[in-house]
Amino acid sequence: MSKASASADYAKILVVRFSSLGDIVLTTPVLMALRARYPEAQIDYLLKEQYLPLLQNHPSRCGLIPLSEELRKDSGAYLQFCDTFRDKGYGLVVDLQGNGRSYVLRKRVFRDWVKVGKQTLKRILLIKFGIGREKYPDVRRRFLRPLRDLGIDDRKVPARAVLAVEDCEKEVARGKFLGNNQKNGSLIAIHPGSKWASKEWGLEKFIQLAKELIEENIPAIERGAGNLVKQIENVAMHGVPVVVAINRFLTDTDAEIEAIRRIALEAGAADAVASELWAKGGEGGEALAEAVVKAAETPSLFKFLYPLDASIKEKIETIATKIYGADGVEYLPAAEKQISLYTKQGFAGLPVCMAKTHLSLSHDPALKGRPKGFRVPVREVRASIGAGFLYPLLGDMRTMPGLPTEPAGAHVDIDETGKTVGLF
Questions:
Q1: Three-state SS for 328?
Q2: Which fold has domain 305-424?
Q3: CB-side exposure of 311: number of CA atoms within 13 Å?
Q4: What CATH superfamily is the domain 2-156?
Q5: Burial class of 415 by CB neighbour count within 10 A (0 to 12, 13 to 18, 19+)
Q6: Residue range 384-396, pLDDT digits in tens
Q7: What pLDDT, on a 0 to 100 scale, did the predictor assign at position 120?
Q8: Element housing 227 (H / E)
């Protein structure tokens, strides 16, 4: 038994991933990459019987081989099942499971193989103790990585999960998630398995989330409005009027829109207007544009948040306490040295641009809404002298790269009819 050859032209390929629902969905980029590499090959997928519907009618044109519950539980029967593959002419197995059961199949039958690497320890540390959340590899990329042995550049393969969904399947999903409470034709799709933290969620939690997102829930809006209120206050500190744009979607009710508008006006906004630009183009944004024009014509008294001659620490602490709502700032030794150095070099007059997570008003992405009772840790203070500003690093913030894990451009393509896909 050996690893696969990049130069071999495999005519029959077996892909193995027994479970579970989310992981099987995330292996679909592998199927698309294999089909592109071996356009005439017969590609079969071995998976647990209950997951067969996931890949029916998949565009990779893969055949489906079920692993029954009886075979999974009976080791003797499973060995006999593995032996049935000896005479079926498979030249390659792509093992995306990487456990003992898939190893037995590879060992007994196949000469050429590629397999996914195991992440057992990392999974345990993440799921049980929350360690390594930021460093855990994207699951889709982990499935694609073994294809390098086949001469496929996995970095150029769009890590886009693809499923063929028929109308009857949509009806099943609608009934499963919404029951008899369906009020319109819209559905919310939740992509499972993309983060290991979701492993802690059972189906009932996804169902609950879907219902809460679709059904009218004014109390939820009021609980989550603290962040909006603080942002309005932050802009008002600079002496300019605030207009709140409310992105309205199909499942939003008039009462929910009015609740947001009421909260925004009470917080000091000049206006709060629903926008449907995403659905109606320019027409959907006319009311918002009129509100912005009206606000722009209102006299304003713009002012800086802090005196421009304030010290570096005064600027940092003003932003932390007034904009973020922190109780104060804590400087790590490296930051203290840098602040002292920049002050001696004459750069204390430069404005400050804080580098922190976008997922919270604070430095901690876990602190949602309008957090209180926290202190901001300043790890470093760096200088962009040419650009003319200083930028403190708060908490674990990284300054590069400035792109998401999967850039949107990686999903743009041209299909066989010449149509551009993946733009939206």
A1: strand
A2: Formyltetrahydrofolate synthetase; domain 3 (3.10.410)
A3: 9
A4: Glycogen Phosphorylase B; (3.40.50.2000)
A5: exposed
A6: 999 999 999 998 8
A7: 64
A8: helix 226-236
